[in-house]
Amino acid sequence: MINDLLLLHLAGRHPELALFYALDSTLGSVAGAFAMYGLSHHGSRFLRRNAPPSQAGRAQHWLERNDFVTVLVASLLPPPAPFKIVPIVAGAVSVNAARFGAALVLGRGLRFAFEAFVGMRYGGEAEAYLKRHLVSFSLAMAAFILVAWTLYRYWQKRGERLGQRPAAGGPAK
Questions:
Q1: How far is it, in rounded angstroms, from Cα 79 to Cα 18?
Q2: Cα dihedral 113, 33, 84, 21 sign
Q3: Which SS3 state, helix, strand or coil, does residue 83 take?
Q4: What digits encode the pLDDT tens for the residues 129-163?
Q5: What is the pTM of this model?
Q6: Vertex 125: Cα angle to 29 and 4 (nearest 5)
Q7: Cis peptide before 79 (omega within 30 of 0)
Q8: pLDDT in tens, 69-97
Q9: Peptide bond into 171 cis (omega under 30)
């Protein structure tokens, strides 16, 4: 939350540097998340030793299928949403680092760009604006992403089913 308020404050005072502040916040957040990812990735043998295999398998399977959207939604959510658990678990179950990074850059970039815009647009009122609207905006964005992901998965499965049907007039498999 401190980073968000500082970004708003600085963007309000120096609107010409707002994009730089948003980029700086994004890069710092991504670097911190990758540090947690790396530590948990290399220290995962201790985590795996204490986790029941069935639970670890379900979490790993979920993240393998939904890694991008999970990280993206978590990176959009405002404080006090528990974001730090996402890079820790992603590293522990060896989520693809490129997909992890892409979701982080997109999610954090959108979030911090929005906050910089609010700071530029509303100046001194931006901090109060953030307190009133950031949660709503973030939840709406997360809902939009989840709906888009659900539709994508539906169309993907529907396409797979349609692709398995025999061609008209062709032999049945």
A1: 21
A2: negative
A3: coil
A4: 667 776 777 777 778 778 877 887 787 777 777 76
A5: 0.69
A6: 10
A7: no
A8: 888 888 888 777 778 888 988 888 888 89
A9: no
